[in-house]
Amino acid sequence: MAKTASVPVNDGLNRAKPYQLMLFPLNNGATNVYFVLILSYVAQFGSSVLKLGMFASIMVTVMRIADAVTDPIIGALMDRTSTKIGKFRPFMIIGSAIMALSVIALYCLLPLVPETQMAMRYILFTLVYFIWVIGYTFQTSCTRAGQTVLTNDPSQRPLFTIFNTIGSLAGMGIMQFMIPLIKKNYDKVVDGVVTVSGYADPALYRMITPIGIAISVLLTILAIIGIAEKDRPEYYGIGGSKQEKVKISEYAAIIKANKPMQRLMVAGAGCKLALAIATNTTVLLALYGILMGNYNSLYLPMMVLGYVFAVPFFLLSVRTSQKEGQKASLTRYVSVALICYVGVLVLLILSQYGKADWMLSFPFNGGGSVNLYTILFILFFGVGYGAYYATADMPIPMVADCSDYETYRSGKYIPGIMGTMFSLIDKLVSSLAQTLVAFIFLLFAGLNELPTDATPYSAGIKVAVIVMFCIIPMIAWVATLIAMKGYTLTGAKMKEIQAVNGARKKAIAAGMTLEESMEAYKTMDDVANKPIQ
Prior knowledge:
Elements: H1 18-23, H2 26-39, H3 42-48, H4 55-79, H5 89-109, H6 118-145, H7 147-150, H8 159-184, E1 188-190, E2 193-196, H9 202-227, H10 251-257, H11 259-278, H12 281-291, H13 295-324, H14 326-350, H15 372-392, H16 395-410, H17 415-445, H18 459-485, H19 491-509, H20 514-520, H21 524-529
Antiparallel strand pairs: 1-2
Helix pairs in contact: 2-5, 2-6, 2-8, 2-9, 3-4, 4-6, 4-17, 5-6, 5-9, 6-17, 8-9, 8-13, 11-15, 11-16, 11-17, 11-18, 12-13, 12-18, 13-14, 13-15, 14-15, 14-18, 16-17, 16-19, 17-18, 19-20
């Protein structure tokens, strides 16, 4: 006779230990080191150091679009992988090694190719960048896919955003803070004016490359420690080690049927585009160095202020996510960012180059005194930046929700393809951001090369900065809010999904087939009242 037992509503929840919640998100910090080191600077490096002009910016987009083919392949490979060291750790190790070697080749070796061999520079730049993208896909996809084994507790998943941000600060934040400081040592200054930017000196890139690699490798090792205990077959979906492999031909139908994932991809693209544009190195150079006239005085203080304002929003967003679900948190704080950036937009339109009262000003590094314009800008920018920075990576833990929803909907465990689909959006949007920057400066300011803080002010540059710093992010946030309207994975729905998946997993372990368990357990009532047959 088949054995029977009641299935508690909360049975089957997989909770992470505190150290696991803290360490595994550092994987995103490890890849975000390269987000700054490569995606923020590669176009500037290609234009100013390798003399490739706009080719570098265009190639960033072209190569990332080409990577659309490799992303699903890597995701499918991950879903079918099961080694002695797990499913995810091999991809983290290989991805980290590929990125380290390719960035050395790009920043340290490629400038050694003489200008008389420009064709070779073009070819090698394209090849090395493509190899780097493969490594980036390997490691970034693990951040999203690995959450499915780390925890499925709806009260724990929002905490990923906080620890992910800490990891980002340990990776992206350190690089963003450090590189401009190092860059000042390579500026060519005449009578207090920067005549040649340090970003045009290949020695700068040779300096920052080993530092970035060391930080990323350290964060990767810590992330591997964080997921090691959970990277085992018993945590892979509801089938565990009995999980059936999904055919590659099935992936298109799965993604088509997973409506929440489709909407999350739009929202994630919107958040990523806003972050990529608003924090783009060239845009900030133009804003603080050209429009406001003193990059060295303004960039770091404004960056620090942004992080300070972000802290309370991270705490608020996690609390909202735990109480009302991650959808409610994302829409609420993106709305705050959108409203505040209306004020930033107005202030930038009203700014007047050369008039101290209508420009940003801080009393150090050659700046003036703090004025009313600066105070208003800090308030609107600070609250807006804090709100959207707190939500910029929120779609990452939501990918795990979509993956769990797919297991609930179809019984299939495919975190790899879910993670790489999102990784694809991440890379496409990031590369689109750099190409948009180059194109908008060409369109409005007539610049054939990316500007530096040594580029003279023009009305066209002001328009370009307003479009990129305010208008494009605001459009992206509107797209996010529209996409989230039809997103069905609310806090209550995720609790039901985890309870049902937990009951099915226990039923399969007791001898049911996957099909039988899915038929037996569909709702919370089934979980609470039906015995295992």
